[in-house]
């Protein structure tokens, strides 16, 4: 196997993180909605944690895309 094929295989494996980020965002928002419906008075207090979790999860997806692009074009 030549180096070019190995770069593309590595980039494809790195892209798995983007799928995990999408799943993670769904889980985060789903759990927040479930908790907010059970106890609506506590929902505004947890909104900051929701946004932080969303940001971290999306950042991991963007980092995996960056790694994939670096593997492909370097």
From TrEMBL:
Annotated organism of origin: Terricaulis silvestris
Keywords: ATP synthesis, Cell membrane, CF(0), Hydrogen ion transport, Ion transport, Lipid-binding, Membrane, Transmembrane, Transmembrane helix, Transport
Protein name: ATP synthase subunit c
Chief location bin: membrane
NCBIfam families: PRK07558.1 (NF005733)
Family as reported in the entry's similarity comment: Belongs to the ATPase C chain family.
Name of the gene encoding the protein in the UniProt record: atpE
Protein's job: F(1)F(0) ATP synthase produces ATP from ADP in the presence of a proton or sodium gradient. F-type ATPases consist of two structural domains, F(1) containing the extramembraneous catalytic core and F(0) containing the membrane proton channel, linked together by a central stalk and a peripheral stalk. During catalysis, ATP synthesis in the catalytic domain of F(1) is coupled via a rotary mechanism of the central stalk subunits to proton translocation. Key component of the F(0) channel; it plays a direct role in translocation across the membrane. A homomeric c-ring of between 10-14 subunits forms the central stalk rotor element with the F(1) delta and epsilon subunits.
Gene Ontology cellular component annotations, sorted alphabetically: plasma membrane; proton-transporting ATP synthase complex; proton-transporting two-sector ATPase complex, proton-transporting domain
Residues in V-ATPase proteolipid subunit C-like domain copies: 9-71
């Amino acid at each position: 196997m030549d180096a070019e094929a190995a770069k593309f295989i590595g980039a494809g494996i790195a892209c798995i993180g983007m799928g995990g980020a999408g799943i993670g965002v769904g889980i985060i928002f789903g759990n927040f909605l479930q908790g907010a419906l059970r106890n609506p008075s506590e929902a505004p207090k947890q909104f900051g944690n929701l946004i932080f979790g969303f940001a971290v999860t999306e950042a991991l997806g963007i980092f995996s895309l960056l790694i994939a692009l670096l593997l492909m074009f370097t």
